[in-house]
Each structure stands twice: as structure tokens, then as C-alpha cells.
Amino acid sequence: MSYVVAAPAQVSLPVTGSAGRFPVHRIYCVGRNYAAHAQEMGGSGREAPFFFMKPADAVVPVPAGETGQVPYPTLTSDYHHEVELVVALGTGGTNIAVDDALRHVWGYAVGLDMTRRDLQSQSKKTGRPWSIAKGFDASAPIGAITAAAQVPGIARSTIALQVNGAERQKSTIADMIWSTAEIISHLSAAWELQPGDLIFTGTPAGVAAVVRGDVLEGRIDALAPLRIQIV
Ligand code: MN
Q1: 5 CA from centroid of ligand 1 (Å)
Q2: Per-residue model confidence as pLDDT tens digits over 98-150
Q3: CA 202 / ligand 1 centre spacing (Å)
Q4: Contact assessment for residue 13 and residue 111, using Cβ atoms and an 8 Å cutoff
Q5: Which CB contacts under 8 angstroms, 24+ apart, belong to 57-60?
Q6: What is the per-residue pLDDT across 43-75, written as a single tens digit (0 to 9) for each?
Q7: In angstroms, what is the span from residue 30 Cα to ligand 1's centroid?
Q8: Ligand 1: distance of its center to the CA of 185 in Å?
Q9: Ligand 1 mean position to 7 CA, how many Å?
């Protein structure tokens, strides 16, 4: 095969305890999946799940024990953190039943759904797409993926984010309005899911702005922590 322009590199993530890497296909994201965050964003906390996407090459892969360098984006003065459980699919399909959904999960990681909140607010007011607020370059820092079999208690894990050592977000995965299995089932009704797909499952309350120099550390029990600095 020869291409008429340079072909893009395959985006991939490190895997805990393995030299192998996880190849990234698409990135799906769930909005408002913790009641307290839905309320802080002006919702009732009882809406059906809704989805948006980020491009695969928005991923900033951060190996365990390292501090990823994430550039402060252009066009915003209200750049927010959203710590989230990221689900990595090993197999795909359409119309996947809830009871069957977790069979498709290869592993889990800690991710940050970085957001240009000011542009998102403008998009909401004008009814325009969220792409510029959510799908910009380097908007998806993600830590190492841990195989699902190694983290059987993930659905009851604590999820937390510290900024410069101070706690900003803390909740439990059990507080998600829509579970991982329910999210996979809903998504697969709208798209054919594929191996390599990632799903950001929503953020707890406490989202706020960060600035250059801030160090963010996201943690979910039993997963590799995600540490980045805004530069
Ligand atoms: Mn989010």
C-alpha cells in the first residue's frame, strides 16, 4: 500500500505489567453521569445518557510513574479538569445487551476529559456542536490501561483528583448514574463498537479551572494513577 500523503501514526496507550500497547480506535464520552456533577452543570441528574466524541489523536498517553506534559490550549480562559474512568474495549459489536456488555471490556484506565468550559457554555447557548470545547488537541490525557481481570472490584472503586496536592474531585464509581455495562449497551445501539474503542464514563462533581504550572493527579483504586502538568 502506498499513500499519497504521510499516513498518521497509530495512537496507543501503555498497559500495566506488559510491553504490549493498546491501539486506540475511537473515543466516546458520556455527559453528566454523576448526579452531583449533573446538578452543578444545571441538569436534573435523571436524563438519558448522551454522548460526544474526541478524536483518537487527542490522547496524551502517560506511562505510570511519569508526569505527562499537557499544553494549555488556545482560545480559552476557563480550562477545566474532569477526572473519569476510561473503559477500553477488546471486542465490539452492535446492540450489545447489558448482561453481555462487560465481556467486551479489555481494561480500565484513569483519564482526564479536559474541557474549554467557556467555549462549551457558548456552544450550549447557541445550540452549536461541542467539538471545539471537548475535541481539541491533547484534550484526552490517559494513564496506563490495566486488564479488567486484574481489577474485579472496579465498579466500587474511589475516583479522585488532586490539583497541586489539594483534593478537587472525589466520588465512587458506584455513583455513576449509568453503569459501564449500560453505557456500552446504549453506545452499541448507535454505533458499531470496535476493538480499541475508549469510553470516558463521566466525571464527579468538583470540576474547576487549571492554569499553566498546575500538577493534576487522578486516581482510581487499583489502577495506575494519572499525573500531568499543564505547560
Ligand atoms: Mn466528561
Answers
A1: 34
A2: 999 999 999 999 999 999 999 999 999 999 999 999 999 999 999 999 999 99
A3: 5
A4: no
A5: 57/8, 57/11, 57/137, 58/27, 58/135, 58/136, 58/137, 58/138, 58/139, 58/140, 59/11, 59/13, 59/24, 59/27, 59/140, 59/141, 59/142, 59/198, 60/138, 60/140, 60/141, 60/142, 60/228
A6: 776 678 999 999 999 999 999 999 999 999 999
A7: 6
A8: 19
A9: 30
Phi, psi angles (nearest 5°) of residue 24? -90, 130
How far, in Å, from the CA of 135 to the mean position of ligand 1? 11
State how far Cα 108 lies from the chain centre: 10
The grid coordinates listed for 149 are 481481570
Contacts for 201 with CB less than 8 Å, ≥ 6 apart: 30, 33, 84, 85, 86, 87, 176, 180, 183
Give me the chain's average pLDDT, please.
96
- Rounded to 10 degrees, what is the CA torsion of 44, 49, 52, 56? 130
**Nearest to 156, CA basis, from 133, 186, 179, 134:** 179
Closest CA to 61 of 16, 11, 27: 11
Measure the CA–CA gap between 50 and 44, rounded to whole angstroms.
14
Least confidently predicted of 9-18, 35-44, 71-80: 35-44
Name the more confident of 38 and 112.
Answer: 112
